[in-house]
Amino acid sequence: KQALRQSLANPELSASALAYGLIAPDAAGWQLTPIWCPFCGKHRLNARIDRESGDISGRCAGRCFGDGIVLDVRRTASGTMALTSMKSMLTRELIDLHQYYRQALAEHGGACQSCGRPATLERWSPDEPSSLANHHPYGIRLLCRACGLESGASLWHLLIDTPVAQQFWRRYPRMRALPVREVEVDGRLAMLSGFASSDSSARLDILSATHTYEILHVDGAVER
């Protein structure tokens, strides 16, 4: 047992044990994982789990943008806290966020992640400034007037949630997000972004509608 404790005192060994479910995530604070930040591909992710409240957060250890938050969920989906692998928990929550945000976009609002009451959907862009736009020019937020919770998602966050990006991330664990470029397709304003492997030439280009964030086209998808 003493040898095991000494081994887990090593940050790299402890991070690997956390990611592969050999030890449970500590609710006390942030823990380093061996998972690469999907936005910069340069730093690992820190994780924080609160099993009592059901909250889970993941952020870039290098704070590659703003506060570096990749995932910040209140009251995780049923079954997530039963998982012991941080990567499994992260994947599960990103998939749920994909459904949550896409439904909110379609219905122009959604249920607050904290109190469950209606939250208003707002978009931000270079022409519609937001405090969140200091680090990302495009994104959405849901604002709950009842409890005051503001849940935001940049375009990068919306893209990493998609099944096609999740597949790409599984194939290329060390990747980075591509800069957002404004383009016009068939007379329609769109945003081109995606992800690129940091270890190879593989890349995933995703074209999204500027006003609705609808996925218009995907190039470079990983075959199942």
Write up what this structure looks like.
- The chain is 24% helix and 35% strand.
- It is an alpha+beta fold and 224 residues long.
- It has 2 domains: 2-158, no CATH class; 159-219, no CATH class.
- The model is unreliable at 1-11 and 19-28 (pLDDT under 50).
Helical run tally: 5
Oligomer: single chain
Our estimate of the beta-strand percent is 25-35%
Span between termini? 42 Å
Mean pLDDT: 83
Per the principal axes of the C-alpha atoms, what is the gross shape?
A: globular
Regions with pLDDT < 50 over 5+ consecutive residues? 1-11, 19-28
Number of domains: 2
Q: Walk across the major sheet and give the strand order.
A: 1-2-3-4
Portion in helices? 10-25%
* Extended strand count: 12
| Main β-sheet description | 4 strands, antiparallel
SSE diagram, text form:
Blueprint: H1 2-8, H2 11-19, E1 31-36, E2 44-50, E3 55-60, E4 69-73, H3 86-107, E5 109-111, E6 118-124, E7 139-144, E8 150-154, H4 155-160, H5 163-171, E9 175-185, E10 188-197, E11 203-209, E12 215-219
Antiparallel strand pairs: 1-2, 2-3, 3-4, 5-6, 6-7, 7-8, 9-10, 10-11, 11-12
Describe this structure in a few short sentences:
With 224 residues, the protein is an alpha+beta fold.
Which structural traits does this protein have?
alpha+beta; disordered N terminus; 12 strands; 224 residues; 24% helix; four-stranded antiparallel β-sheet; 2 domains; globular
